Amino acid sequence: LPTVLLEALALGLPAISTSLPGIDEIIDHRRTGLLVPPADGLGLADSIAELLSNPDLRRHLAALGREKAEAAFDVSRNTRRLLDLFARSTASGRLRVIDEHSLSVR
């Protein structure tokens, strides 16, 4: 995932991006940012102009984008979730630690 988009959302900045695969995990069009089709320079220009002229939209996208960044992309929270998943998988016998660099899934 593009780190710059995650950082922008975390800082409470409105974001504009092209609608490439994976970007929709970060940007929900008109909810947490604006999406334009790839290679659509006019669409990008229109989106920039819209944000410049619409402070309510900027505030809306910035606030919801920050909420999403905090909820879905927080490193500490995701690390805890991953460790919990590993603990449950190991306890169930589905995951076996081979060495410090390798895991096996049954």
Can you put this structure into words, describing what you see?
This protein has helices spanning 3-10, 41-53, 55-72, 75-91, and strands at residues 16-18, 34-36, 95-99, 102-105. It is α+β, with helices and mostly antiparallel strands and 106 residues long.
Helix count from the secondary structure assignment: 4
Helix content: 40-55%
Q: Look at the structure and give the mean pLDDT.
A: 87
Shape: elongated
Number of strands: 4
Largest sheet: 2 strands, parallel
Q: Uncertain spans, ≥5 residues at pLDDT below 50?
A: none
Structural category is alpha+beta
Strand order of the largest sheet: 1-2
What Rg is obtained from the alpha carbons, in whole angstroms? 19 Å
Which H/E pattern describes the elements?
A: HEEHHHEE
Q: What is the strand content?
A: 5-15%
Summarize the helices and strands and which ones pair or pack.
Blueprint: H1 3-10, E1 16-18, E2 34-36, H2 41-53, H3 55-72, H4 75-91, E3 95-99, E4 102-105
Parallel strand pairs: 1-2
Antiparallel strand pairs: 3-4
Helix pairs in contact: 1-3
